[in-house]
Amino acid sequence: MNISIKINELYCITFLKNKMKKTLLLFAATIVLTSACMAQKLDRSIKPTPGPAPIIVFKDPYIYKLPNGITLLVVEDHDIPKISANYIIDAGPVSEGNKAGVLELLSGMLNEGTTTLTKVQFSTSIERMGSEVSLNSSGGSVSALTRFFPKSFSLFAQGMRNPAFTASSLEKLKTAKLTDLKADERNGPGISAKLVNALAYGTTHPYGEFPTEASVSKIQLADISAMYRKYITPSRGYLTIIGDITNEEAKALAIKAFGDWKGSILKLPVLTTVPSPFKTEMDVVDLPNLVQSEITLINLINLQISNPDYHAVLLANEILGGSPDSRLFRNLRERHGFTYGAYSSVGAGRYQSTFKASASVRNEKVDSAVVEILNEVNLMRSEPVNKDVLQDAKNLYNGSFALGLETPGRSATLATNILLNNLSKDFYRTYLQKINAVTPADILRVSKKYFTVDNSRVVVVGNAQIGPEVKKLGFPVKHFTTNAAAINN
Fold this sequence. Notes:
By secondary structure, this protein is of the alpha+beta class. It is built from 17 helices and 13 strands. The strands form two sheets. It has a seven-stranded mixed β-sheet, with helices on both faces. The protein has a six-stranded mixed β-sheet with strand order 1-2-6-3-5-4, sandwiched between helices. The termini are far apart.
C-alpha cells in the first residue's frame, strides 16, 4: 500500500514538472512573439488594401408558371423545419382618385375573416399553429413550421380568395383611419412625407395621392369590392415559397390552393411623364407649433434598374447621404450641429422616381441647412470624389450584397426582380463587377445628370424662418396647406 502511494506521488510530481516546463516554454514563446510584433511600427493612417470583390454564386430558384398567370418560385432550404411564402401582385401604380385610401382599407378588410370563418375563428386557427398570415392589397405572406404549413397556406389562400367584406368591418376600419388622420394633423414628418411627393408628382398622380378625411369618408363597401375584383387576381402574380419543402411539394400546394383561381387580367398602366419646375422653387407649409422643420430637396428622375448608370448612381448617393459616414451627415450634424441626421435617397424602376436630400432641423437653422444641403449636392456635381471615398462606398456594397446572399430565399427575391424589371439573367451575378468598375468620373457624370438643383423643389414643413441666406438664392417662395393646396399670397 505504501509502495503504491509512493509510486503515485512520484508520477504526479513528474507530471507536474513536465506540465510546468511546457507552460514556461509557451509563455517564453509568447513574450518573444509579442516583442517582435511591438518592434514593428504600426502606421494606422494607412488603410488596409481591400481584397477582391466577392464572387457571386447562387442557385437559381425552381420556376413554374401556373396556367392562370401566377409565377411560382421555389427555394429549398432544409436546415430548419420552417416554410414561408410570399405573394406579390405586380399591378403597377394604382390611381385611387377622389377616394384615396381605398387600397389601405382594402388591405385591412382582407384580414377581417373569410366567407366561412369570422375574423376570430381565422385568427385563432392561425395562432394555434404558431403561424403568421398577413394579407394586403398587393398580395400577402404566410409563415409556419413545416408540419403546419399546408394548413396555414390553405388559410392564406382562403383569405386571399374569399374575404368576408362586412359593412361592420369597414366602418371599424374607416373610424380608425379617420382618427389617425386627425392625430397626424400636427405630425411634421408625416405631413412632409405625403406633401413632398404630392408637390413633386401632383395630387392626381398615383405617387402623389394621399388619403384625407374627405376621401376616406366617401369610401363605401362597393368601392372595396370593386377594387378587390380589379386588382386581387392571379394575373401578374408572383408566388415565392422558401424553406423545408421540395419543388414538387410546393408546386402541388400552389396548384391546389390557386390553380383554379380566376380574376381580371392586369396590364401595367402607362403614366404621363411629370415635368420638373422650370426653376428651383421653395415650397413652404407653415406649421407654427412645430419645434423643428422638415427640409427636403427633391427632383424627379428617370432611372431604370437596367440603365448603365444605375450602379454609379447607387454609389453617388451612398457618398452624398446614404449613411452616417456620408457628406450630408458629416456636414449638417457633425460640423454644424443642425440636426440628428441628414440623408439622401434615390429611386429606380419602371416609372419616374425621385432623388431626395432631407433633414429635420431647428426652425432657426432652416436657412443655413438649406444652403448647406445645396452646397453638398453642388459639390457632388462639380468635383470628382476621392478614390478612397469611392472605395469605401464600394466596400460597403461588396460586403452587404454578399452577406445578403446568406439569407435563405435571397435568390428568389433576385429572380423576381429580374422578372419584374425585365433584367438580363446574369444581372445580379455581375452586380459587384459593375459596382467595382465605377470610377470617380462616373460619379461626377451621374451626379450632374440625376442630382439636379436648378429645376427642383425645396419643400419646408414647419415653423420655417426663411431668412436672408435663402433669399440670396433667388428661389421663388410658394406657400401650401397641409393638403397641398396652393395659398395665394
